[in-house]
Amino acid sequence: MFTGLIEEMGKVVTIRPITEGLQLDIECTKVLDGLDVNDSISVSGICLTVISRGKKTFRVQAVQETIQRTTIRGWSWGTDVNLERACTPETRLGGHIVQGHVDGIGTVKRIKKVGQSAEWVIEIPEFLARYCVEKGPIALDGISLTIANMKANMLTVALIPHTLQGTNFGDKRGGDHINIEVDLLAKYAEKLILPERSRLIQ
Known about the structure:
Helix content is 17%, strand content 42%. By secondary structure, the chain is α+β, with helices and mostly antiparallel strands. The chain starts with 7 loop residues before the first strand and ends with a helix.
């Protein structure tokens, strides 16, 4: 489990196809502290397992299911990625509960600069819009954000300078794709309510 508070940006330094999917080496500094083989790590919102690590890098693998559901299929050498280690019982939950299980891919439709900050309009798949509400949480490329405005399947988020400078969002442009993870609690609520609603209708 993660909080959606990015610890640092890493960089893809190798990416190669393997029988199971893709193998990637990520260069970083901060998150290597205490990071061991078999640990989970969020890489731009994708929960991956560390299979080996060196002095400046760690290695992960992505299976075909992950490749098909996320933006990882468009990554290459030099791609900047957001990194967060799995939280511990002592971690402050400053964001929201993020699993690193990407639900779909969104598209940056518009970026409006507001001083050093920015407002982004994101188009998300229609089947995910029902889990999103104004002032509710959403994870974009692993970043915990609050939905400022919601119209149909278009949502707006506000980004402070710290987020733009400390994540790969500083390099994003209109038309870019991002990983979307909606609120887990909303999905559980839907699962609990729908069977009861069906029973009452009958």
